[in-house]
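Q: I'm writing a short explainer about Fatty acid desaturase domain-containing protein for a general audience and would like to include a description of its predicted shape. Could you first generate the structure from this sequence?
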Amino acid sequence: MGAGRSNPSDLDGKKSETVSIKRAPTSKPPFTLADIKKTIPPHCFERSLIRSFSYLVYDLTLVWILYYLATTYIPQLPHPLPYLAWPVYWFVQGCVFIGIWVIGHECGHHAFSDHVWVDDCIGFVIHSCLLTPYFSWKISHRRHHSNTGSLDRDEVYVPKTKSKLSSSAFYLDNPIGRTFTLAVKLSLGWYIYLSINAAGRPYDKFASHYDPRSPIFSDNERVLILITDIGLVSFSFLLYKVATFAGFANVFCVYGGALMVMNAFLVTITYLQHTHPSLPRYDDSEWNWMNGALSTMDRDYGVLNKVFHNVTDTHVVHHLFSYIPHYHAMEATKAIRPIVGEFYQKDSTPFFLALWRESKNCLFIEPDEGDEKNKGIYWFRSQY
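A: Of course. Here's the predicted structure. Afterward I'll give you a sentence or two in plain language.
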């Protein structure tokens, strides 16, 4: 397999504006996973229940403070200022929600403590309260980590080849169409994926994270999906009872709006971690675990990196060693960069610009035309 700079590619969708993209290497790395692990300080692999809990308590404290300030002072603002203040609250609270969601995600990777049962109990409660199916997501996400970059077995953000695109993709390939697509993706995309496996791995029958009979899960995992559903239904019922007492508008103001912001960021973060013109996809003839794990992208969200517990800018090391706690991930990332070298991928483009750019430039995938040697390696394209 080969690597290097691509031919000038039409990143802006205009033949008159060409930009050369440095593609991620697809050759066999000159290092092993054991070599990478040796470069990381041993304490980075240590999980502390007390320290992990401290981050959770900190985030929950922020949630309570923001809730108290919003419910106490926003109603007192003169009209129409509350209509401006509530969205600000939703954004800030939604960002804190992402931090809590990340802690639940770490529980699913057994990165919260040394005890799996503790991790599962904490993760189940956290994710249920954020309307995320804990065990369902844990199972499919684990398989995503085992098959990253594989066109045949990866579980999420599996791009289509040009021949498999629907006709609507062509008609939506314009500023209005992209705006509409992004609006749907950011508002409903998380639940659409969970409900009908949109943008996920193709299965031979209906697949859903909520269905214990789904082909996503094996027979011995189906009881966990049922437990997950019970958790989601229970918390949804609690929200309903609170809404009947306090009003549905109040529940949306203090919880629903922030949850929508969290979902939008969740889709943005995960989409941008796996979508970039420099990142390859592999069919079964070329895929291997190491190259797949390295075909991911660290992104820079500025001050939000810390709010999000660095899930944004330490994604590469997370795919190599998913059990490293977030509070060691930055140190681990810095440690691996010298040995990983050009195999490490990072893009510092502001996320809102990158989201628009990638939605424009990464429409489908195709192997390089005429490259018989690497015909199992696919790259994002934007030109039909």
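A: For your explainer, you could say: The two ends are 26 Å apart (CA to CA).
Q: Perfect, that's easy to follow.
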